[in-house]
Amino acid sequence: MARRSPYLITDYRSDLRLFGSNWKRFGLLLMVVAFIGAPLQLDNFWLGLLGLVAVYAIGGIGLNLLTGYAGQVSLGHAFFLGVGAYSAAWFGGQQGWPMLLWLPAAALIGAAMGALVGPIALRLSGQYLAIVTLGLLFIGEHFMVQWKAVTGGTRGTSVNADLAIGPVDFANLELFGITFTRNQGLFWLLWGVVALVALMAKNIARTRPGRALQAIRDRDVAAEIIGVSLSRYKVAVFALSSGIAAVAGGFYGAAVQQFVSPVEFGGIQGLVFSITFIAVIIVGGMGTISGGIVGALVVGALPRITQRFADYLPFLKSTPNDSGIILVGQFNLMLFGALIIVFLLAEPLGLAALWRRITTYFKAWPFSY
Amino acid sequence: MTEFLQLMVSGVSLGFTYALVALGFVIIYKATEVINFSQGGLVMIGAYLVYNFTSTWGLPFALSVVLGMLATAGIGLIFERIILRRMVGAPVFAQVMITIGLLFILQNLVTAIWGPDPLNLGDPWGVSTVTFGEVVIQVRQLWGMGLTLFVLLLFFLFFRFTPLGLAMRATAIDQEAALAQGMSSKRVYMAAWGIAGATAALAGVSIASGAASLSPEVQFYALLAFPAIILGGIDSPLGAVIGGLVIGITQSLTAGYIGDIAPWLGAGFESVMPFVVMVLVLLVRPYGLFGTPEIKRV
Question: In 3D, which of B47, B49, B58, B52 has the Cα closest to residue B205?
C-alpha cells in the first residue's frame, strides 16, 4: 500500500499546527539553541546590533499584521513607536514603575492611539490612508516637542526604565553566580519578547481573526458580505499593531537607546523610521510572521555593518571630511531605497517566498513541480 | 488690516508654490492612479540642476530653468521606463513603495553631490520687493504666482485640446478601453512622468529662489503639498491649485495669529496645521473637495 505523503494535510488541526513537520521541529530546536547560546558566543557589537534587530522584529510583526495581513498601509508606524518610547520614559523612568507595569501601560496607550486612528481607515482606503498616517507623524512630532513636562521637548529625555521581571534584572543579569553584560542580558529579554509576540501574532493570523483580516485585504466588500465586520476588524487591527509598535518603542527607548528624542519619531526622520519598518516587511515577506523577523535581520543589520566596514569600502566616508564619495548614513538610506525597489521588482513577497520556493524545489526534486 | 493683507499675500504665494508641486502629483495620479512619493525628490534634484547650470556653468537663468526642466523630465522618463513600466498591474501598494524607494535614492544622491549647506540659486529676482499701499510683495513671489497660473493654463489646454491629453484622460478612466481605441498607454505613462518632472523642476525653482535659499529642505514642500492634493482631490488640477491656496493661506494665517488666539498649541503649529485641516476635510469628504469618488462594484 502506498505510504501517505508527509506533506499531505488532511484535517484542519494539522493545517493549524505550528511545528508540523520534523524539519520544522528541528528548526525550532536550532532557534532555541541559538537563543541560549548566541549571547555567550558573540561580542558586544553584534549583541547590541541584535538588540536593535529584535526591536525591528517586534515592530515589523506588528506592521505585518496591519499591512501584510489586513492590507492597510500605514506610514505612521514610527509615531506609535514614539508613543511607546515616551511611555517607557515617563512611567518607567520618571515614575519608576517596574517593567511588568510600564510595558503593559505603553502597549495600552499605543493601542488606544491606534484605535483612534482606526475609524479613519474605515472611511479612507489605500493611498489616502497612507497620506493621513503620514500626517500623524507631523502632528505627533508637534505634540512630542510641545508637551515638555513628559517628553523633554526638542532635546529629548533619557529613559532609565527598569528592565527586570521580579528579581531577574536583565540589565545586570546574574544567574548561577555568573555575571552577564548588559547586552547579553538584554538579548535574552528582547528575543524572548520577540518569540512571545511572534507566537501571539501567529495565533491571531492562523485562526479566525487572521482569516478575516486577509479577507479584508483581498476584497473588503466581499469580506463584509461573508460576515466580516469591517469596523470591528479594522479598528482592532490598528489597535493591535499600534500596541505591538508601542512595545517595540518602549524597548527601543529603554533598552536600545536609553534616550528618546521627538525628531526620531516625527516628521522626516519619522517617515524614514516608518519606511524602515515597511522595508522590514517587504524584504522579509508580507503576510508572514517569520518574514518580520527575517526582514528585521537584514534591514537592521545592513546599516550597522556598512558603518562598521566603511573604512574598507573606498567610496564610503564616515565623516564629511574623509575622502570618499558618499557618507555612510546617506549610502544606507540609498541602500534602503534600492532594497525596496529590487525586492518589489524581483520578489514582491520577500525572502519568505524565496525560502518557500527553495524548499518546494527540494521537496519535488527531481521533478520541477 | 495691513497685517492681515500681508499674511494673505504670503499665504497666497505659498499656496501657489504648493499648487505647483501638487500639479506634478496630479498628472501622475491621473495617468497611473499612483501617488508619486518621489515628487519631492524630483523637486529637489530639479532645483539643484538649475543651480548647477546657473552658478557652476554660468548659463543665463532662463536657459538654466528650461534645461533644468528638460533634465528633470528626463529623469522622470527614465525612471518610468526602466522601473515603473515593469510594475504596471502590480498592487498599488507596491508601486507607491517603489516611488518611496526612489525618493530615498534621489534625496541622498543630491545631498551627496551638492552637500547639505544652503546655496544661492543665482536667480535675477534676489530679495527685491514691490510695495502696494502698505503691503510688501517679493518679486519672486509674483513670479511664482505667474508661473503657476501659466502652468495651470498649459495643463488645461493640454488636457482639453491635445490628442495626448485626451489619451491621458481616457487611460485614466479605463486603461483597457483606451488601448482598444489605439491609445498607447506606454506613451501616456512616459508623458505623465516627463511633465511631472518638468513641473517639479519649476516648483523647485519657485521654492528656492530669492531670499529663500536652496537646501535639501526644499523637499519638505512636497510633503506639505500632500495636504493640498488631498484637499483638492487627487485627480483634479484645478483642485490642486485651490487645495494649495487653502493650505497656504491657512498656514500663513495660523503663523500670524495662533500666538494671540491659542498660544497653548505651541510655537510652530503652522507647519502642522495643513495636516490637521487635511484630516478634518477627509473625514467629511473622503475624496477631497474636487476628487472623483471611487465607485465600489460588487
Answer: B47
Q: Whole-angstrom Cα distance, residue B2 to residue B254? A: 16
Within 10 angstroms of residue B145's Cβ, the number of other Cβ atoms is 20
- The size of chain B, in residues, is 298
Mean pLDDT by 10 residues, chain B (298 residues): 84 88 88 87 92 86 90 93 85 87 88 83 73 78 86 88 87 83 86 93 85 77 84 82 90 82 74 86 78 70
* Residue B295 CB contacts under 8 Å (≥ 6 apart), including other chains: none
Structural domain range at position B152: 17-218
Residue A179 dihedral angles phi and psi, to the nearest 5°: -95, 130
Tell me which chain B residues have a C-beta less than 8 angstroms from the C-beta of A340: 97-98, 100-101, 104
- B100 Cβ under 8 Å from any chain A Cβ: yes
Nearest CA in chain B to A124: B286
Q: Chain B residues with CB inside 8 Å of A74's CB?
A: none
Calpha distance B206→B209 (Å, rounded):
6
Asked if residue B191 belongs to a domain, the reply is yes
Which of A278, A333, A337 is closest, CB to CB, to B102?
Answer: A337
| The three grid cell numbers given for residue B66, joined into one nine-digit string | 528650461
pLDDT digits (tens, 9 = 90+) for A140-189: 888 888 887 777 777 777 777 777 777 777 777 777 777 777 888 888 89
What ipTM was predicted for this assembly? Answer: 0.85
Q: Where does residue A206 rank: exposed (0-12), middle (13-18), buried (19+ CB within 10 A)?
A: middle
Three-state SS at B129: strand
Structural domains in chain B (count):
1
Q: Is B88 inside a domain boundary?
A: yes
Q: Which amino acid is at B173?
A: I
State the DSSP H helix or E strand holding residue A42, giving kind and residue range, or none if neither.
Answer: none
Interfacial A residues in 329-368 facing B (CB < 8 Å): 330-331, 333-334, 336-341, 344-345, 348
Which residue, among B32, B37, B96, B97, would best test binding to A if mutated, counting the most A CBs under 10 Å from its CB? B97
3-state secondary structure of A168: strand
> What are the residues whose beta carbons fall under 8 Å from the beta carbon of B57, sequence distance 6 or more?
B64
| Per-residue CA distances from B111 to A94, A330, A332, B45, B135 (Å) | 39, 8, 13, 10, 37
Residue of A nearest to B293 (CA): A124
A135 contacts on B by Cβ (under 8 Å): 226-227, 275-276, 278-279
Grid cell at residue B196: 511631472
* Cα angle: A13, vertex A16, A20; to 5 degrees: 90
pLDDT for A304-356, tens place per residue?
888 877 777 777 776 666 666 777 778 888 888 888 899 988 888 888 888 88
Whether B2 is in a domain gets the answer no
B224 and B247 Cβ atoms separated by less than 8 Å: yes
CB contact under 8 A, A221 and B278: no
Beta partners for residue B164, in sequence order: none
List the domains of chain A with CATH numbers. Answer: 40-364 (1.10.3470)
User: Is residue B58 domain-resident?
Assistant: yes
User: Residue A288's closest CA among A22, A60, A16, A4?
Assistant: A60
